[in-house]
Amino acid sequence: MGAEINDQESEDPKTRGGSPEMAEERSPMKNTMENMSLKQALSRLEAIVTELEQGKLTLDESMAKFEEGVRLAYACLQRLEED
């Protein structure tokens, strides 16, 4: 008997993946990112990448940093497309 996956849980964008728009909706950092300059957002994104590459974070911490990075990358892309 193999492991069963609950389809309902894996499709919930609040717990698994989802679009960047959905990530922004549940993000407590949304307002902070809106107030960041593109340079500040890119600097923060670089810091997140460095932290993840070091491999010293727990899985939960890594996932949180990854999600923050995705939100930042999406916000940067939106700003670049606006110009």
Main attributes?
about 70% helix; about 80 residues; 5 helices; elongated; mainly alpha; about 0% strand
Task: List SSEs in N-to-C order.
Answer: HHHHH
Helix content: 55-70%
Proportion of beta-strand residues = under 5%
The major β-sheet equals: none
Mean pLDDT: 75
User: What's the total number of strands?
Assistant: 0
Protein name: Exodeoxyribonuclease VII small subunit
GO molecular function: exodeoxyribonuclease VII activity
Family: Belongs to the XseB family.
Keywords: Cytoplasm, Exonuclease, Hydrolase, Nuclease
Explain what this protein looks like in three dimensions.
- The structure is a single chain.
- This protein is mainly α.
- The chain contains five helices and no strands.
- The protein has one domain.
- 70% of the residues lie in helices and 0% in strands.
- This is Exodeoxyribonuclease VII small subunit.
- Belongs to the XseB family.
- InterPro entries: Exonuc_VII_S (IPR003761), Exonuc_VII_ssu_sf (IPR037004).
- Pfam families: Exonuc_VII_S.
Topology:
Elements: H1 7-11, H2 20-25, H3 30-35, H4 38-54, H5 59-82
Helix pairs in contact: 4-5
What's a quick, concise take on this entry?
The protein is mainly α and 83 residues long.
